[in-house]
Design goal:
The protein folds into 2 domains: about 140 residues, Beta Barrel (Lyase, Ornithine Decarboxylase, Chain A, domain 1); about 180 residues, TIM Barrel, CATH 3.20.20. The protein contains 11 helices and 22 strands. Helix 5 crosses helix 6 and helix 8 runs parallel beside helix 9. It is elongated, with a radius of gyration of 23 Å. Bound molecules: pyridoxal-5'-phosphate (PLP). The site of pyridoxal-5'-phosphate (PLP) has 16 residues, from strand 15 and helix 10.
Length: about 400
Amino acid sequence: MMVNHPEHAPITQFPIHDNCLVIGGISLARLAQRIGSTPFYAYDRQLISARVQSLRQHLPANIHLHYAMKANPMPAVVQHLAGLVDGIDVASTGEMKVALDAGVAPEAISFAGPGKSRQELACAIAAGIILNVESEYELETIAQLAKETGFQASVAVRVNPDFELKSSGMKMGGGSKQFGIDAERVPAVLQRIAQLKLDFEGLHIFSGSQNLRVEAIQEAHEKTLQLGLQLAAVSPVPVRTINIGGGFGVPYFPGENPLDLGAVGNNLQHLLAAIPVRFSTIRFIIELGRYIVAEAGIYVCRVLERKISRGQVFLITNGGLHHHLAASGNFGQVIRKNYPVAIGNKMGINDTETVSVVGPLCTPLDLLADRMALSRAEPGDWVVVFQSGAYGLTASPVAFLSHPAPLEVLV
Ligand SMILES: *Cc1c(COP(=O)(O)O)cnc(C)c1O
């Protein structure tokens, strides 16, 4: 009986020249020489630009696009995106510094995340960025700090919605959450903001991440707008912006397909067109991390040894979970699945074999590909992990086992 195994969505964003992958117009072999050592992450700036362009093309013209930089905080990437998007969302004062250094205007930077310390809040207020308030306690602290320093504090209220984003890779709203203020408490919080005379920006509703299902995103957009406008209608302080979150996914695993951005954009266009005129001054924001950068990046490591154990071939490489936790399957996956992987200097070669790609760490979790059909590889060849531009290096336990950290380049 034939069993149909689901396959990875084809990787088409990188050209191939002489069986070698090309990134940023440079062949992998030459780029590796230029960088001087492996492993490394390489991000293609043209692909990042093209992705932003595609978003601009498919999303309603009046929607503002923000980059959530925790997906990839490399300063060169943030600098590049600073000139392409309308704002940057940060999740720490470290990220805030990178965004400010990149020349982003403070009023185009928003800072979300639970557990902001007094110190961080004070830095953010002095910087003049917008604080997405995650709790009533945080709001009072901000008001106190603003009073002490004499600086105006700009705040937006992060709302924990009363619904969940269906089939999302990671749920970040709905039910009981550490994120945001429960929707039913928000009217009272808006009254408090008016009383405290803080500079009020608007509402932030982010319900989840890594979603590939159009209907689920459409439903989330509809409910998010509905909730946002309902709250705006009872707010004593004018709502200038409503950030409707993001959560657009990219295909990582066999059987997953790229998101139909056209369908998401069309639906949003209709939803925005139907908004009553009295809300016409509200600016709508969409914030994306992964979707903007994930597919523009690769992780590259080198085969050190080809080892056969009881018939199974292992490619032992100098890279692994300490550099790329997500590809090893240990960053939130329930059932481990392979990322798309290839031998970067043997692309399109039909001489394949089934191998497992492992790293140098003393743990069986250090697995980059589990019994995958790859071009037959030898020591010195390059293993490429695709879809690696988001939640790669900075989402990995680099210090684990004290191997050297990988380099990063934007080409
Ligand atoms: C992480 C995060 C994002 C980005 O999520 P992606 O799945 O990378 O698009 C956006 N907004 C907030 C509040 C986040 O915490």
